[in-house]
Amino acid sequence: MKKCMKYWPLYVIGVLVSWTSFAAESENYDAAAAYQTSCFACHGTGQAHAPVVGDVIEWEIRAEKGMETLVQNTINGLNGIMPARGLCADCSDEQLRAIVEYMLEESK
Ligand code: HEC
Questions:
Q1: Contact (CB, 8 A) for 35 and 99
Q2: Buried residues in 36-75 as b, exposed as e (16+ CB within 10 A)
Q3: Which residue has the higher pLDDT, 30 or 11?
Q4: Any long-range contacts for 53-59 (C-beta under 8 Å, 24+ apart)?
Q5: Closest CA to 88 of 80, 79, 99, 78
Q6: CATH class name, domain 30-105
Q7: Cα–ligand 1 centroid distance for 57 (angstroms)
Q8: CA 82 to ligand 1 center in whole angstroms
Q9: Contact, 96 vs 85, CB < 8 A?
Q10: Which pLDDT does position 106 carry in this prediction?
């Protein structure tokens, strides 16, 4: 038992390593795939007059509101036509932010 306790720092390191790899995983979050699944139906086609990803002017105007506003409007929905969370109930706030960043990046 005593021997076991000697190695507790290893245990701590193990936890830290698994935590960082988890963080790295969320960084590698596939925003493009999530966009295709949840947002493309409207934002790829202009369905319901959604701003089309790739439309530089449209997204330039939206980007002027600031990232925080765009993310908030994604989370809460906008004007009754942009559905709350873009209909992605499983997407976390951080993931939605990553998707919005992807959409802006694709519309430059
Ligand atoms: C049912 C169709 C639909 C879906 C699905 C949808 N959107 Fe939208 N979205 C809209 C429409 C329509 C607007 C324009 C709203 C307006 O300006 O009044 C909009 C606007 C936006 C905006 C601009 C907000 C602003 O403040 O100008 C962002 C960002 C956005 N959507 C992100 C997303 C993301 C991310 C997803 C997927 C997770 C998504 N949308 C899914 C229809 C949709």
A1: yes
A2: ebbbeebbeeeeeebbbbeeeeebeebbeeeeeebbebbb
A3: 30
A4: 53/103, 53/106, 53/107, 54/106, 54/107, 55/107, 56/107, 56/108, 58/107, 59/103, 59/104, 59/107, 59/108
A5: 99
A6: mainly alpha
A7: 16
A8: 4
A9: yes
A10: 97
Task: Output helix, strand, coil percentages for the chain, rounded to the nearest 5.
Answer: 70, 0, 30
Distance of alpha carbon 86 from alpha carbon 108, whole angstroms:
21
Is the per-residue pLDDT at 1 higher than 90?
A: no
| Domain-wise residue ranges, the chain | 30-105
For a ligand 1 pocket test, name from 40, 45, 64, 78 the mutation site with the most ligand atoms within 8 angstroms of its C-beta: 78
Counting from 1 in the atom list of ligand 1, the atom nearest the Cα of 47 is 2
Choose among 45, 15, 50, 39: nearest CA to 101. Answer: 39
The pTM (predicted TM-score) of the whole model is: 0.82
**The dihedral formed by the CA atoms of 46, 49, 55 and 57, expressed in degrees to the nearest 10:** 170
